[in-house]
Amino acid sequence: MVGSLLLAGEFFARYRLPMDSASDLRSRGPDGPSSVAGSVIESPGERAGRGRVDTAAVWVPAIVALALGSWRITVPSLWRDESVSGVVARLPLSYMRQLIGDIDAVHALYYLLLRPFAASGGSEFLLRLPSLLAFGAAAYGVAALGRRLAGPLAGLYGGLIYALLPMADRYAQEARSYAIVSAVAVLATWLLVAALSDASRRRYAAYAVSVFLLGSFHLYALLLLPAHALAVRLARPRRVLPWVISVAAACAALLPLVAVASGEREAQLFWVSPPDWRDVGAFFGEVAGNAAAAVVVLALAAYGAWRSRRTPVLALWVVLPLLGFFVISQVHPIYSPRYALFVVPALALLAGIGLERAASALRGGLAYAAPAVAVVLVGALTASTQVAIREPDSRPDDLRSLAAVLAAEERPGDGALYVPQRFHLFVSVYEAPYEHLVDLTNAPGVYEPRTPAEMTAAAAGLQRVWLISPDLTPRYANDPRLQALRRDFTSGPAKRFGSIRLALLTRK
Known about the structure:
Membrane topology: Multi-pass membrane protein
Strand order of the largest sheet: 2-1-3-5-4
Number of domains: 2
Order of helices and strands: HHHHHHHHHHHHHHHHHHHHEHEHEHHEE
InterPro entries: LipidA_mod_glycosyltrf_83 (IPR050297)
Largest sheet: 5 strands, mixed
Low-confidence stretches: 1-40
Main location: membrane
GO molecular function: pentosyltransferase activity
Organism: Planotetraspora thailandica
Radius of gyration: 26 Å
């Protein structure tokens, strides 16, 4: 990683300029801030008009993002990961504490945040509402950061492009923490740029808090920090020490979470494999929805990085976290596209800056018409994917249909066995049909699963048991509780709901 940072430093060295706000630069002449020839005198009406433009530039993307994120937000079924969010968020705190200490510490803050939304069962809309609001906040933050670094139009275009990217929209409609992580990454970067422009203890303290929140919502999002470190070194070398102190304080506060989560890595990431270069290309295809849209967005982003010497932090924000995921995952696989969602705001803002720079070379109405056409083009290219991610069966699992089948076919006194044990969390977000089943996996109010003997005793008076599991590969088919149950029960045909399997076992 050190070698990669040095190479990136050489590549981005030509971008080295102080990170002052774009509005500050407008008041500077060619000879610096005291230049009379470069000063701009505005009338009150002009200042008010510019203020309205600046305000619209940040609010329009946020409104568009909220509108798009709300569109058909309840149509796709909640799936396995969302079920875990909804079920854990409404568990008693004592049970939640046991679960977090066993497998899911990295999401503890998110589950606590979700508790009010999951109360009384929690509808699909309420469970997904925090992600939707974070999506709108991230679009606002992208536009605000773009306004500060490159002017209001660059921020406007970047925020709109972010709102149109299918990957960002997908996780705006999911009850997981990834949209929130993206919003916090935008906030942390904005606070860093503000601190570099006008240093104060309060600004660095706010930045430290944002880094703490970033790691608390997802530890892998701390891969943003090498990008911040190099951006500080290139822009304000004398402010490296305050930055280090801020980050050290945040990371010290995160040490308990790191200590617990490090022991849960295998349980959390057993399904992750090392990525190759094809996965990098696939990531950008997922961000934009298809190859054509990806080419347009990447071309604009590359042009934005090339034309603007004031955006090293944005280019580094895209490159270094992805490089970190790739390098680390060759030894300890940690990469999943959704874990890298927090780089998408930087990509969108670079594309917005590229669009603004390209339009600035045009004259007259073309300077405004061309960006409008480009944004519409991005929307048109991503439209089919936007529709596809909102279809009822667009998620890996269809837990809504699973719950409907159980509700229609279960009988009083039926039992349920979840293999593996934690599948109870994975499927029961639509809780009504599961409340009528006798849980053979866990005794009421007990975190540890029953032993095979305890399960056999609990099933003694049952004639039917529903088996809820993934495909019965040897890993799951040899579950001792399932083996014990099969001595007395015969399995009927299985029904599938995405990656989840439902089978009825009846007593021999």
